[in-house]
Amino acid sequence: MEETAEVVAPRAAEVPMVEQEVVRRIRVLAEAGWGHKRIAREVGVARNTVRRYVRAGRAAEKQVRPKARRLTEAEQQRAVELWTGAAEGNAVVVKALLAQEGVEAGVRTVQRAVEEKRRQEHAAQVATVRFETKPGQQMQVDFGEKKVRLGGQWVKVFLLVAVLSFSRRLFVRAFLNQRGDDWREGVAAAFVHFGGVVLEVLGDNARPLVEEHDRRAGTVRFHPGWVEFCRDWDVTPKACGPYRARTKGKTESGVKYVKRNALAGREFDSFGELERHLAEWMAQADMRVHGTTHERPLDRFEREEKAALRALPARALPRRQQRLKRKVANDALVDVDTVRYSVPHRLVRESVEVQVGDSEVRIFYAGVLVATHARGKEPHGRVVDEAHWEGLWRARAVQPVEGSGGKLSALGRSLEDYAAVVEQGARRGAA
């Protein structure tokens, strides 16, 4: 039996690295006008190798980087001054301002000049010292939003979350918007829920609360409506620094907790069911062991904070005061936060003002009250007063019943008359 010879594939030849001197000769000869084939014979390498090194040499010539621009020490100091001042931390603006002063520099050069200052400011912003307040001193508030499935459709729900800073008791209320009235109604409801009023309320820089916050000057101009509300409830308004959300970290954590625990993966048949669920969930949240205090918020509240809260006002205080401008649609309805309310049909296409109260909606036209409704909370619902549509359609004529007057009566005859004629004819035929 013949043995079959094993066929061994030849190993690929290793491509030797071309020495730097050979590469230099290739490029010199190419500059002298020699062709690739002639150069290959001269230096003893493959023609493709010559092509590769000649091509690389041309590409290197095209990509010569300009000499990096370096700022002097004085120019670097000036760049830092502009970055912390007029440029407000923008390197592109610093570059433009330096150019106006006759100093040309790239954006990357400016970034290198201010890098140390930027790192220091970032460290100062990130660094956090936990601030613990006394019982009854502070309540932190914030709004979050989440899409929730209500009645089979997705609805964006706005969640006001309030947290007592000492005990960490939590309050949440759902809204269909987050206007100033919603902030005020939510905060007032939180006071009622906790059974007392704190000394100060810390919020963020939302437009319904803060009109202007100058972090460099350390001044805050609050919204007049928010100032008036705080004055009525005898609390001091506070605002966290811009881009410093950690200064109200208790409620920031509370908003995340509500989204991920109270609402995660849940759907509801109606907005009312959502409100009832949140009320039950708040009681459960008060009984959990808090990760920071290692106590149940309700226990901490009952032991130390409840007695420190000030009494609620003896009389009900106004919470909502904003009037919203709306145009009446062709179906004699106006829309407020997806809920539609009817107005007299004569006002179709007219502009009206809508005032949404705690439990009542009032609609004004030219300063005159034209409609009053119970406040609706179901998204995409309708609240209608049928009297507003009277005269909008023609009344249907009711057809009288045959035999009790009817069309024959209109001709001066009745069924009895015709029955008599038929009977008379039958007698004649029999005769």
UniProtKB/TrEMBL annotation:
Pfam families recorded: Mu-transpos_C_2 (PF22483), rve (PF00665)
Residue ranges constituting the Integrase catalytic domain according to the UniProt record: 131-305
Listed GO biological process terms: DNA integration
Gene3D superfamilies tied to this protein: Homeodomain-like, Ribonuclease H-like superfamily/Ribonuclease H
InterPro entries: Homeodomain-like_sf, Integrase_cat-core, IstA-like_C, RNaseH-like_sf, RNaseH_sf
Single annotated GO MF: nucleic acid binding
Matches recorded under PANTHER family: INTEGRASE PROTEIN (PTHR35004:SF7), TRANSPOSASE RV3428C-RELATED (PTHR35004)
Family statement drawn from the similarity comment of this UniProt entry: Belongs to the transposase IS21/IS408/IS1162 family.
Protein known as: Integrase
Species name: Melittangium boletus DSM 14713
